[in-house]
Each structure stands twice: as C-alpha cells, then as structure tokens.
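Run: sequence + zinc ion -> complex structure.
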Amino acid sequence: MNSESLFTVALGLMPPWQVLDLQFDLEKGRIDFQVGFTSGAKFTCPECGEAEQGVHDTRTRTWRHLNFFQYQAFIHADLPRVRCSGCGKTKQVPVPWARPGSGFSLLMEALLVVLAKQMPVRAVAQLMGLHDGQIWRVLDHYVEAARQQEDFSSVQSVGLDETASRRGHNYISLFHDLDQKRLLFACEGRDKAVVAAFVEDLEAHGGQSENIDSVCIDMSKSYVAGVGEHLPHAEITFDPFHVMAIVNKAVDLVRRQESKTEPLLKKTRYLWLRNEANRSQRQQEHFDSLPKSRLKTARAWRIKTLLQEIYQQCQTITDAEQALNRWYNWAIRCRLEPMKDAAKTIRRHWNGILSWFDGHLNNGGVEGTNGLIQAAKARARGYGTVRHLITMAYLVAGKLTHLPAPPFITRCCG
Ligand SMILES: [Zn+2]
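>> structure
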C-alpha cells in the first residue's frame, strides 16, 4: 500500500474521494493532504437530491484536521459544484469530512468540543495553535445544534436563579430541570421577561408551560411576577439558601450598627455568618469569648440560628409552620430593626417558604449544577460577551445528548 492509499483509509475517505498527494514539511511542522475525487465522478444535488450530476466547476478549500503525530495536519480539496438538471441550481457538494463553511474537519471540531468541556477556551486555543474566536464559533454551532434536538416534554420542576457574568455588570438567569438536574435555558437579564423567554424555549423543545407544577426561585419581585404571569400552574418554592441569605444579611446589619459603639465586635463579621463547622479553632475560641448575653448581634445570631434549625429539623409542612410561627413571633418582637425587616420579608413569602418542607424540590441538584456553572464562568473568563458564558454553561451543565462523540475511538480487544 502506498502512502496515499494508506492515508485515504486512515482519513476514512470513500470513493470517489481519495488522497491524491501528501507533503510533509518538517521545518514548518505540518503535513498537507491533497484530497480529490476521481475524474468523471458524479454527485447528488444537495438541494433537491437529484442523483448523478456532473461537476460544473470547483473551488479550492482547506481544513485543519487532527494532528498527525505532533504535527499540524491540513486537508486541501477542490470542492465540486453541480449545476443540477433537476432543480436548475448551482450548488456546492458537501464533503464527508467537514460541515459546510467550517475550516475544520469534523473530527477536529469534535476534539475542540471535548477539550473545551474540560479546560478554558484560551488554553485550548494555545494548545492547538488557534485563535479563541475560531473555537467559540465551533462551540456556538455544536451547542446550538445539540440544544435544538433536546426534548423538554417531561419537565415539571424548574429551579430559577441568577448569576453575574462579570463583576456584576451583566446578569444571566438560569433555568434548571430539578428532576434531571440539567440546565434547560439561560438568557441575559433578571427581569420578569426572562420567564416568558424560558416558556417560549420550553415549548420549542416539546415542553408545556402547564406541565410545570413547581418552581424554585429566590424572593426577587421580578421572578415572582414572571412566574405568576407565565407559569400560572406552578407552585412557588423559595430556595432556603436565599432565605438564609436575607437573614444573614440582617445579622450583619445589626453587627455593623452595634460595632460603632462596641469595639469587641471588630473583625467578627464571619464569626456570626459562618456555621460552627466552618470556623477554625482560633475563630471558635474568639467566638466563644464574646459576651453573648449582652450583645445585640448575638441576639440576632440566635434568631438566625433558630431558622437554620427549622430548615434542618422540620420534616413536614405542619411542623415547619408551627416552628416558623414561633420564630416569626420572636423575630418581630426582637427590637432589632434589620431582623424585624427580615421577619416581614419572610412573612410576605410565607407559603413559598413553607412549600419547601413538603420535600418536592431537590435543591441539591441545583447546587451541583451551579458548581458546573461556576466552572463554565472560569472557562469563559476574559470573554466579555454574555453569549460565550451561556454557550459554555450549556456545554458543561446542559447534559446535551447530541454533541459530537470524542474523536479518539478506544477499541477493546477483549
Ligand atoms: Zn437539484
């Protein structure tokens, strides 16, 4: 077998395509394959499917392929166009190794997708000797194509939260499937219109807004309004993490006010916010040494701790409602304005806070997905556009089932 035939097989080419010539340039570190079709070959019209069309003319194109050993590899070919006897149009014939318009072979694109799932795009670009933009174009294409084939018809429980794309300049809203633990939809903004955009996307993927029976959100007015308007069948549950965040913020406000006259409170911020398990030994000793019986901050902290215990210990809505009522009565009478405000916020969101206790929504899954979203942010870091962040979020957290398979086939010889 000569080397042209060998590479024809290795590249997976089928007649009429074959390797005509190859050039290896050690200095430039590259191998170039000239691929062509046998003269007189006939092609099917890509427009109407009319078979056996003669070649009208050709256009020379180049594709970057997977490396040959440590050397960059390129495929060159004169792409045929047919002037179709059926539909009368002049059309470029697609090639089996690349998709139309791409400067990469399919296997090279598959490798870029696999790498970008694991490492920052900038690192992939450096590794492969490419520009970032070339990689983003490939990712945008495959993520969008894979998403188009996703089926959302079984989606019933949705978690919605937001993340800042870059130092708080832009926000994106993230919609999670709480049962399948996957990112369903992401878009810019955090107003109520994002829920309308989600419903449109859901229905484009075979889902139905009436099937969404529960939604887990934070207490932002715009999310509450958006869900009320566009997912009217969904019961709202407020995410305990956000409920605790509001109470923690109130504790910190009490501390800040009190520390103006109480020097003991200096450098104690995290002592009040952290759980005992997360304090170092030194922090714990410091915390134990504070005179908690007279500090207002300690009173606020005890109120917070009780709420935390309610979340940890109450098994049913009935238990939780009794405990939450006792908690509210304490907090609203505590004479600490920030804590009273937090208690009022909780009273306003009462049913949504209690509905968490029926155990329907699994928030652990959202946290797992959020870890992936944070990884996506890290991988898209340095790219100003929200679109890149969203593409990366789908890639790592969307559980997309129609992405290209990894290019390296592992054959088992067992
Ligand atoms: Zn045709």
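>> summary
The first strand starts at residue 17 and ends at 25. The mean pLDDT is 92.
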